[in-house]
Every structure is written in structure tokens, then in C-alpha cells.
Amino acid sequence: MRALLDQLKAIVGPAGWTSDPIALQPNLTEWRGVVTGKTPLMVAPASTDEVSRVVRACADAHVAIVPQGGNTGMCAGAVPDDSGTQVLLSLGRLNRIREVDAANYSMVVEAGCVLANVQEAARAVNRYFPLSLGAEGSCQIGGNLATNAGGVNVIRYGTARALALGLEVVLADGSVLDGLRSLRKDTAGYDLKQVFIGSEGTLGIITAAVLRLFPEPGETSTAFIAIGDSGDAVRLLSHLRGAHANTIEAFELISARVMRLVAEHLPNARLPFEADYPWYVLLEIATGGNAQAMEDALADAAEASLILDAVIAKNAAEAGELWDVRHSMSEAQRRAGKSLKHDISVPVARMQEFLARGDAVLAELMPDAGLIAYGHVGDGNLHYNVTLPGHLAPAEREAAGAAVTSALYDLAAGLGGSFSAEHGVGVLKKPYLEKYRGGVEFRLMKCLKQALDPENILNPGKVI
């Protein structure tokens, strides 16, 4: 091992590695603090060639590698295990915007580019990169692609999978797949990039990507809307799609409990309502220059008895404040303490059914639990998180948590949904992958892993 570590240090140079325990600590614990690992060395290559050489050296020595982006994931997919034998590979120094092609509506970026910087590079040429999520100031595009991130704009633009035109990937033997093509149409064989998007670094290490850009959406209008129950959110979305189907940028559902958590733990947040309503929707539409578009849409919805109250942002600053409330929810929840995270998706038409039946599941299994629900209802993704009572002993908490989680995932699956909508599988959800995607589907996943990483070098113990 010592010879390998010396070899890796030589490959990345003095600025590209650390073994200092203090410096390593933020990289060894996942964002929520649930899982902590160990590593003898973290390397941070500055080029694809350096990544390739690092991987080849580790493969020759039969030492595992854990690739890591911004380490903002929710399933512990980017931290090493506690054996202390896995090398941590940070993509943070691969942070160049290689090319922005405004005419082709595309850009080539390295995996370590922070998402907010990718968005800004697009804006600099009057283009728009729509992937947007709460961690965009620290998450990296490579990690977004490796987990097929979703965010708030999926309803109009799709997940990260739909936003990638091509990839550059370092494979388990150190060879480099150069698929940085910016084509919209290409039927030459298998679409290999899709194998690596969502694979969480278990099949290859994404080092660069060609991303799709879009025209700037132009003027948008943002509103925070109070509604009576979750079913009204589904009905409101259906109502709005009748007249605004191609202009709805985001449609977010938020429960009253989540709003109270934000008020309690983030006192600087400016909440839109003084009154407390059962549920809320954060809506953004592209107005096309029609300043009355949002008011007209909400007036129609009010006539249909779909909303109780609404606040419409008067300008970009006020819209930013409304979005700050939404983006602060994960942080407020983290400060409130650990909870069971359920990142599920169901067909939009069955969202209300999931919420109603999910409430019944909680009432039966854990009536003292606290529900923290919010999500991207426009695309069927709900974060249905549960805080267990504080009086439970550790063993009781573990048993109760397992029972609640299993019941909720069974419910989602029974409604045609998924136990993992946008957070991935990582370590924490790995047991559920075989349960819900067993048979032929799971066997094919194992075949892919065996074919692309026969020595199990890349992120072992994650996903599959």
C-alpha cells in the first residue's frame, strides 16, 4: 500500500493530495452526518490524464477508489467505508469550463465544476442551463450526472439525464471513453453515456460532460400559494397545465410543518405568510412578457376554489426571497435533527393517494412521528421524511424506522412509483434495490457491473 500511495502522490503532485485527518474530515462524512468512513489518502487530480493514471495504478494494486464531487449526496454514495483501505478521489480540481458554444446551445464542462458556476457560464452567453437544486452553490456537475439529479425544473426540462449530450469517462482499467459529442441525433450503436449517468461512480468516473443549453426563459413570475390540502396541489397543477403547460418552470409542494421548521431554525428566512396554512405551492411560470399572466392564472384557480391565498413576487429580488425559503428546507430539516428520508416518486395523478395512504401508514405504525413533506409535485417526486419520537431507545428507533420505511416504499411501488427519485441508492438504499428491482432488471445491473468493473475497483459497496 505504501508504494501505491507514493505513486499516487507523484501522479497528482504536491497540491493534489492530502492525508491530514483534519483536512480530510469534511470529505469522510456524508452531508447529513449519518455515515463516516476512513481513507489513507485523498487525491485530487487536475486533469483527465491524472485521473486515468490514478485509476490505472489503483487497478494494478487491486485497491478500491471512491470518486467524490461536492459530497452533498443523501445516500452516502460518495464516502469511503470504514476499512481505511479505499482511496478517495476528489474531482474538485477538474473545474474548467472547456467550451461554451452558444450557437449550438451546448457547453463542455469538467466534472468538478460547481453547478452554480455552470449556470453562470451559460448566462454569460445569454443561454440557460436549467438544472437547479438547493445545493447548487457546492454540488458539482459530475456528481449531479452520476446521481441523475433532478431539482426544481424537471417538470419542464427533465433530469440531469436529459441535459447531457456526451460524456468523458475514465473506466475501471484507467482507459478513457471520449464521448464528448454535442449531437442531438446520433444512432451509431448503443448510447453509452446513459450507462454512466445515475451509476454513482460504480461503472466509471465522469470527468467531463457536454451539456444542453436552452434559450433564456425570459421574464418569469413567481408565486407562493396557500392551499387546503395536498389534493388541491394535484388539481391546481392540472388546472394550470390547461393554459400554461409549456411555461410552467417549477411547481413545488410544501407542508405547513416544513414551513414551521424553516421559521424555527432559520430565523433570517422571510416567510411569505403570517397565517399558517395546511399546504403550500411554490409556482414559477415563464410569462413571455405578459405581466398579468400569473395574476390571471391565480384568479382562474381561485374561481375554481383551488387556492386559499397567494403572494406574487413583484420583482426578481422578491422572487429570490421566495426561492430562498424553498432552498433552505433541507438545511432547516438537518438542524432540526435526524429523520428518515424517503425520496419517492409516483405518477403525478397518484400523488394525493400516496399522501393519504402514507398518513394512514404513519398513524398505524408510529402515530407520534412527525411528517416533513415537500417535493417536486410537478414531476411526481416527493420528499416524505419522518421524524421519530425522541423517547425511543436506539434499538426501538432502528426497528420502527425500518418498518415505516419498508411500508412507505411498498406503498410507492404499489402505486407504480420508485423508492429513489433523485437521491440515488448509495449505501443507505442499497438493500431496497434488489427488493424492488429484482429479477431480470437487477441481474442486468449486476452484469453491467461485472463487465465494466470486474475487479470491483470503483466505489465498491455502493448501489449493487
Secondary structure elements and pairings:
Layout: H1 2-12, E1 17-18, H2 21-28, E2 42-43, H3 48-61, E3 65-68, E4 87-90, E5 97-101, E6 106-110, H4 115-123, E7 127-128, H5 141-146, H6 154-157, H7 160-163, E8 164-170, E9 176-179, H8 193-196, E10 205-212, E11 214-215, E12 220-227, H9 230-244, E13 248-255, H10 256-265, E14 279-286, H11 293-303, E15 309-312, H12 316-327, H13 329-336, E16 343-345, H14 351-365, E17 370-376, E18 381-387, H15 394-414, H16 430-436, H17 440-452
Parallel strand pairs: 2-4, 3-4
Antiparallel strand pairs: 1-2, 5-6, 6-10, 7-11, 8-9, 8-10, 12-14, 12-15, 13-14, 13-17, 16-18, 17-18
Helix pairs in contact: 1-3, 9-14, 10-13, 14-15
Concise summary:
The chain is 37% helix and 19% strand. It has 464 residues and is of the alpha+beta class.
What can you tell me about this protein's structure?
It contains 17 helices and 18 strands. It is an alpha+beta fold and 464 residues long. The strands form 4 sheets. It has a 7-stranded antiparallel sheet, with helices on both faces. It has a 5-stranded antiparallel sheet with strand order 5-6-10-8-9. The longest helix is centred in the C-terminal third of the chain and has 21 residues, at 394-414. The mean pLDDT is 93.
